[in-house]
Amino acid sequence: MTATPIRLLLVDDDPLVRAGLALMIGGAEDIEVVGEAADGAEADELVRRTRPDVVLMDIRMPSVDGITATRRLRARPDAPQVVVLTTFHADEQVLHALRAGAAGFVLKDTPPAEIVAAVRRVAAGDPVLSPAVTRQLMRHAAGTAADARQTRARERLAVLNDREREVAVGVGRGLANAGIAAELFISVATVKAHVSRILAKLGLDNRVQIALLAYDAGLLESEDGH
């Protein structure tokens, strides 16, 4: 029995970029491009009609940009996963999109096979973001608001118990569930349960947002050699 294909919506204000993405992804038998949108407002309407599993979203668009659109889409019931498209690695706009609920990002010049792999990963519930790139982004965005952000993050994390905090740090370090389980001498199933509770307690969408919050709170400073 053939598995149901991943339903993908493309959002970019450049019709040539959309055509190129549709062409390169069209060869993947397990992914179906169900629509194309030119901006965030159009994306919102198309998500209602086509119910995609994943949205490949440009950040910079006229009218409604990718960050605003991501925040709106992730607030919907049965929200699709969002992967943002960008031209820069260390782009503060990417960080804003991740805080809005995106599961990761890919560069526009990423090889087609890697974009297809990214779509598959987020459809399976895995973030598309390496710990090194996460730290690069967050260091890039660090500035005058860092102290206030740290205070807010620590206040939010205060609802976690000690074990949940340890798991959150493991997520922030980019460890998979098995790696966290090995370090804390608990089962993988227990780690999964803790991650689910952390997401629920903090009102977060995904592991990327746990990592961002742990970083903001200063829990990962030792990872950066501070």
TrEMBL record:
Signal sequence, start to end: none
Where does the Response regulatory domain start and stop, copy by copy?
Answer: 7-123
Entry-linked CDD domains: LuxR_C_like, REC_NarL-like
Q: Which Gene3D superfamilies match?
A: 3.40.50.2300
Q: Does this entry carry the keyword Cell membrane?
A: no
Fetch the Pfam families from UniProt: GerE (PF00196), Response_reg (PF00072)
Q: What residue stretches are annotated with the HTH luxR-type domain?
A: 153-218
What species is this protein from? Streptomyces musisoli
InterPro entries on file = CheY-like_superfamily, NreC/VraR/RcsB-like_REC, Sig_transdc_resp-reg_C-effctor, Sig_transdc_resp-reg_receiver, Tscrpt_reg_LuxR_C, WalR-like
State the name under which the record lists this protein: Response regulator transcription factor
Please name the taxonomic classification of the source: Bacteria, Bacillati, Actinomycetota, Actinomycetes, Kitasatosporales
Q: Which domain of life is it from?
A: Bacteria
Keywords in alphabetical order: DNA-binding, Phosphoprotein, Transcription, Transcription regulation
List of residues that carry 4-aspartylphosphate: 58
